[in-house]
Amino acid sequence: MIDLATWNLSVPVGSPPYTVETTKLVKGFKDQYFHSNTGTLFFWSPVTGTRTENAKYARTELRETYSNGTLRNWYYPDADNFLRATLAVKQVPSSGKIVIGQIHAFQSQKPMVKVEYQYDTSSDTGDIVAKVRMRPDDDEGRVITVATGVKLHQEFSYLIHLSPGGALGISAAGYQWDTNISEKWRVKPLYFKAGVYVQDNSGYTSEGGKVMFSKLDIDHDK
After folding, report:
1. Nearest to 77 by CA among 162, 164, 168
2. What dihedral angle (degrees, nearest 10) is formed by the CA atoms of 11, 56, 101, 46?
C-alpha cells in the first residue's frame, strides 16, 4: 500500500482546480481522476481539465506535504532527497507527452526537474526525458533522454536524487544520468510532485494522460 500521508492532490476540476487535502486523501478519497482502492494509485487528467494559475496544461498530481497537511518545502543542503516511483503509463494525449515526476520550486513557475514520458507513435515506444534547470534563472535548461524503448502499459521505475552537495541523479528504466546543479539553488525552497501532468491542452474530453503507480516514496535522509 502506498503511503499518502505526505501528499495533497490537485485534480483538474473547478476554478481554481480542487486540492484534496492530506487527511482526506489518507481516508481513501476517490473520483474519476484519482483512486487508490487497489493499493496502486490511478491518475487520469484529460486535456480539457481546468488548469492551475499560470499553467498551460491540466494535471492530476500529488504535491509534497507534512503529515498534518501543511505544505512541505525543503532546502537541498539539509538532507539527501529522494523520490522513488514504479509506474506504468496507460494513455498519452496526442502530443505524446506527460510529466510523471518533478522537483518544483516554491512560489515559482520554473521547476528544477521534470521527468517526462514522451511517446512516439512511429516506434510504438516512449522515452523517459529529464528537463533540468541548472540554475533558478534558466529559462530553458537541459533536456536529457535518460531511457528509451519504454512501451505503454510497461511497468518501469524512476528515481530522482538530490544530494546535500548538489549532485542530481535521475535514473529510469534501468538507465542513469548525473550532473551537479548550481549552488544558487541552495536558498530556494523545493518540493516533490508526482502523478500525471499532460503536456497538451486541445482535444476531446476522452484525450489525456492515464498512469498507474504501484510504488511511490519520498525520503529526506539527514
Report:
1. 164
2. 50
What was the pLDDT predicted at 103? 98
- Long-range (24+ apart) CB contacts under 8 A made by 70-74 are 71/8, 71/106, 71/191, 72/6, 72/191, 73/106, 73/189, 73/190, 73/191, 74/189, 74/190, 74/191, 74/220
Pick from 139, 138, 188, 144: nearest CA to 166: 188
Q: What whole-number distance in Å separates Cα of residue 53 and Cα of residue 3?
A: 28
Q: What are phi and psi of 48, to 5 degrees?
A: -90, 0
How do residues 3-15 score in pLDDT, each as one tens digit? 999 999 999 999 9
Closest CA to 182 of 168, 192, 171: 168
The answer to whether 189 and 73 have CB atoms below 8 angstroms apart is yes
- What would the grid cell of residue 164 be? 546535500
Domains and CATH numbers, the chain: 7-221 (2.60.120.200)
CA pair distance 159, 85, nearest whole angstrom: 7
Select from 8, 120, 1, 123 the least CA-distant residue to 62.
8
Q: Is the pTM of this model over 0.90?
A: yes
Tell the residue number behind the cell numbers 552537495, with chain if given.
165
Contact 2, 41 (CB under 8 A): yes
